[in-house]
Amino acid sequence: MSTLPTAHLIDGSLYVFRAWHSMPDEFHDADGHPVNAVHGYTRFLCELLEREGPTHLAVAFDASLTTSFRNAIYPAYKANRELPPPDLERQFVLCRAVTEALGIRVMIDHSFEADDLIGSALWGLRAHGFRSVIVSADKDFGQLLGEHDEQWDFARNLRWGPAGVFDRLGVHPVQVADFLALCGDAVDNIPGVPGIGAKTAAALLAHFGSLDELLDRVDEVPFLRLRGAASCAAKLREHAEAARLYRRLTRIALDAPFDGGAETLIRQRSNTALESLCEQLRFGPLTRTRLRTLNGA
After folding, report:
1. How confident is the model at residue 207, as a pLDDT?
2. One CATH from 1.10.10.10, 3.40.50.10490, 1.10.150.20, 3.30.70.920 for 173-250
3. Which H or E element spans position 153?
4. What residue segments make up the domains of the chain, in order of their start?
5. In CATH, which of 3.40.50.1010, 1.10.10.10, 3.40.50.200, 3.20.20.105 is domain 6-169+253-294?
6. How far, CA to CA in Å, does 273 sit from each of 84, 102, 258, 268?
7. What does the chain look like in DSSP terms, one character per residue?
8. Tell me, what's the pLDDT at 213?
9. What are the strands of the beta sheet with 105-107, ordered from one edge?
10. CA atoms lying within 13 Å on the CB side of residue 159
11. What is the structure's pLDDT at 1?
């Protein structure tokens, strides 16, 4: 276990969506609006705080599915996803409010996605001697893991470091963005290079090291001991520029706003906002007790 100070960086949008899909539609706030996702997300956040007792943490949220810089360079990015219904949009706002009421920093930006906010925070914190634990199951985060960092799939309670990225994807962290550019990512509507699947992409990167090197030396591909090598080379020549574009989508940005440094990730507890939220959201006695205890009441 590393002795470096640890920051927990949480992919909030993922856990709101999970709560929306998993929690029964039987929770309503004081005005009669559904709040099932808020209740599920709050339980997740309470459990994380109780289990880990993190000293430094932040939760990142996506502002929207359509406003990030990636949509500007590739309009089809995430176009396969349905926009959240109004009831869920409203619950996202409430989940952010619960997070802030617990004194946890919220990160959100209309130009950058949650992944970019987490990546930029991790990068900045690393320069100040911190290791990061990324709380998410999203494979994209593998590209961020340095020697001391971890990714934590909270629902399955699985943790892994850089070596675990290779175990899962067959590539090293520095190659993850290139890997996804080659084989595509259906979740984000990134098609990849036609005919190149995950195994082929991993084999190509194992040989060439990077997407740039692969495209510069594409004439060597037909001579590899690779099934369909000649066809693969032809596809790479035809779609080289597209692959470079896809990498601009799959690479997590490290220049998103992250102001204030590590001290801004220390919880600032205030029970005033929390009590009014408990009333508005009609939290039960157990959840209220957990929240008050976590806030030091």
Report:
1. 97
2. 1.10.150.20
3. strand 150-153
4. 6-169+253-294, 173-250
5. 3.40.50.1010
6. 26, 9, 25, 12
7. ---S-EEEEEEHHHHHHHHHHHS-S--B-TTS-B-HHHHHHHHHHHHHHHHH--SEEEEE--S-SS-SHHHHH-TTTTTTSPPPPHHHHHHHHHHHHHHHHTT-EEE--SSS-HHHHHHHHHHHHHTTT-EEEEE---GGGGGG--TT-EEEETTTTEEE-HHHHHHHHSS-GGGHHHHHHHH-BGGGTB--STT--HHHHHHHHHHHSSHHHHHHTGGGGGGSS-TTHHHHHHHHHHTHHHHHHHHHHHSPPS-S---S-GGGGB----HHHHHHHHHHHT--HHHHHHHHHHTT-
8. 98
9. 105-107, 56-60, 6-11, 131-135, 150-153, 158-160
10. 9
11. 59
Tell me, what amino acid is at 46? C
The residue assigned the tokens 């599920």 is 40
Q: What is the pLDDT of residue 73?
A: 95
Mean per-residue pLDDT pooled into runs of 10, the chain (297 residues): 89 96 93 97 97 96 91 94 92 97 95 97 95 97 98 97 97 98 96 96 98 98 93 97 98 92 88 89 96 87
So what's the pLDDT on residue 141? 98
